[in-house]
Amino acid sequence: MIQALQGLRGIALITATSLVAEIGSFERFATPRQLMSYVGLIPSEYSSGERRKQGEITKTGNRHVRRLLVESAWSYRYQPAVKGELKKRLNGLPPNIQGISWKAQNRLHKKYFRLLSKGKESGKAITAVAGELAGFIWAITREVEDVPKP
């Protein structure tokens, strides 16, 4: 699993090992949203009747994993590319993991710049990217583990 997680941009050996050690079994998360919630990267909500407003992230989850994901998310500011260390880490991984990695690079890069173009601060944009990165991590763990898909 650690090698598969290293297929994502911004996640090398120490980050992948730390994620697996901090989270433990990914089987307990049936959906990517549950993993995002565990990490505390989902927006808080203020609701009353028909009115619904989303606020800042909840920060109720594992702060170590949240910090790792936010730091990893900074690498998605750069153009999607498979070169250097990432190319070495992707070598030998199954095609489905490589596909998830490439999809993550494209989607997260676009998301970061889309949020910046809407006037969001870079820190807030990166936090949003980190939340979605958690979803891609969940997808990779589903491919690696023999977990029944819901």
Automatic annotation (TrEMBL):
Superkingdom per UniProt: Bacteria
Domain Transposase IS116/IS110/IS902 C-terminal: 3-76
Signal peptide (from-to): none
InterPro entries for this protein: Transpos_IS110, Transposase_20
GO molecular function, one term: transposase activity
One Pfam assignment: Transposase_20
GO biological process, one term: DNA transposition
Protein name, entry field: Transposase
Organism field: Halalkalibacter wakoensis JCM 9140
Organism lineage: Bacteria, Bacillati, Bacillota, Bacilli, Bacillales
